[in-house]
Design brief:
This protein has a domain of 37 residues. The N and C termini lie far apart (84 Å). It is 60% helix and 0% strand. α1 runs antiparallel to α4. By secondary structure, it is mostly helical.
Length: 109
């Protein structure tokens, strides 16, 4: 199940990258380089920007939800995970409690 969610996450990430690069910026940007300026001819300029904008939001939302689900439920070794701070902050536990030693003066006769 973990592998399936991971593959879906990678595919959504690649799709999100492609869709973001296809969006036309004010100066043309990378959209003109990868043929994004031609995408407007399929739907029309206004509908294309709406479609790309909405699909960006949906894919980003799905990606965030998948990342949370993978992290909380399917991450291997999730039960014994500790942060670096928790691992290094363990103080040594004494085996027996030590009492302070008091020196007694020898009895005088």
């Amino acid at each position: 199940m973990f592998s399936l969610f991971l593959i879906i996450t990678v595919l959504i990430s690649v799709a999100l990258i492609v869709i973001v690069l296809l969006q036309a910026s004010k100066g043309g940007g990378l959209a003109g380089t990868f043929g994004g300026s031609q995408v407007g001819s399929m739907f029309g300029t206004r509908r294309t920007s709406d479609f790309l904008s909405k699909s960006t939001w949906w894919l980003a939302g799905v990606l965030i939800v998948l990342a949370i689900i993978i992290n909380l439920f399917f991450l291997p070794g999730a039960s014994d995970r500790q942060s670096v701070i928790q691992q290094s902050a363990k103080p040594p536990v004494p085996t027996q409690p030590t009492l302070p030693q008091t020196q007694q003066a020898p009895p005088t006769q």
